């Protein structure tokens, strides 16, 4: 872990960016004064965290990557599993967090993000007959708002929470009438954010998440009550 921390510190110090190769193994062994096994374990740990990819063969080696929320999903899932927490836990967290994200997005979202949000709304409408399109655009919509809040923590949290509470994976179905209701809710949220109305944005998001939870509780109560298990997400 200490070697891994030093490697990351050196990535920052050198100003390495995504796609940059790190020094060869021999140079890293000399720099960090550790054995080959320790260095490779450290690099493997950073690969699992999404910080590096390890390219095999001549000219290969560790390459800097952009970490995503995958590691956070795993960590949160394991923490929740060992607390025997149900999927309702994640739904409640979204209900608490996402209205604040929508409020901030109305204040901070730039024009490019706003255009992407509009595109998501339009694409969902065009693909309402296809549940896979609906699910992809539903996730995209909430991701854009989370990242558009200007708070990096929110962006990764929503990526992780949506990764855990993927309705299609845990058994929540969305008939077309429900997809249409979700689309209408997304339109209201988009319009409030577009009009730069923080209060209306937060209110529209709160209503949307509340409707989702009520739908799941009415149609799939056993799903929300089921304990979160790593491997089921």
TrEMBL record:
Any coiled-coil regions, as ranges: none
Alphabetized UniProt keyword annotations: DNA-binding, Transcription, Transcription regulation
Signal sequence segment: none
Ranges where the HTH gntR-type domain occurs: 1-67
Listed GO MF terms: DNA binding; DNA-binding transcription factor activity
InterPro entries according to UniProt: GntR_C (IPR011711), TF_FadR/GntR_C (IPR008920), Tscrpt_reg_HTH_GntR (IPR000524), WH-like_DNA-bd_sf (IPR036388), WH_DNA-bd_sf (IPR036390)
PANTHER family, per database record: TRANSCRIPTIONAL REGULATOR, GNTR FAMILY, UXU OPERON TRANSCRIPTIONAL REGULATOR
Official protein name in the record: FadR family transcriptional regulator
UniProt source species: Herbidospora galbida
């Amino acid at each position: 872990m200490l070697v891994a921390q030093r490697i990351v510190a050196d990535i920052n110090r050198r100003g390495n960016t995504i796609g940059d190769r790190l020094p060869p193994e021999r140079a890293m062994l000399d720099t960090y004064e550790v054995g080959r096994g320790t260095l490779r374990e450290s690099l493997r740990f950073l690969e699992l965290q999404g910080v590096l990819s390890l390219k095999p063969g001549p000219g290969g080696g560790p390459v800097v990557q952009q970490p995503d929320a995958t590691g956070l999903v795993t960590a949160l899932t394991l923490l929740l599993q060992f607390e025997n927490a149900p999927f309702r836990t994640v739904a409640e967290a979204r209900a608490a967090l996402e209205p604040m994200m929508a409020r901030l997005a109305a204040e901070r979202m730039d024009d490019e993000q706003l255009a992407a949000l509009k595109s998501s709304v339009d694409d969902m409408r065009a693909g309402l007959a296809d549940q896979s399109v609906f699910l992809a655009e539903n996730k995209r919509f909430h991701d854009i708002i989370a990242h558009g809040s200007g708070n990096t923590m929110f962006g990764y949290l929503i990526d992780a929470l949506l990764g855990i509470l993927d309705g299609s994976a845990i058994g929540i179905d969305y008939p077309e009438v429900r997809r249409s209701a979700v689309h209408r809710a997304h339109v209201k949220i988009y319009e409030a954010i577009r009009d730069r109305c923080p209060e209306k944005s937060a209110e529209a998001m709160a209503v949307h998440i509340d409707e989702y939870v009520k739908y799941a509780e009415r149609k799939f109560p056993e799903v929300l009550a089921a304990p979160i298990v790593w491997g089921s997400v």
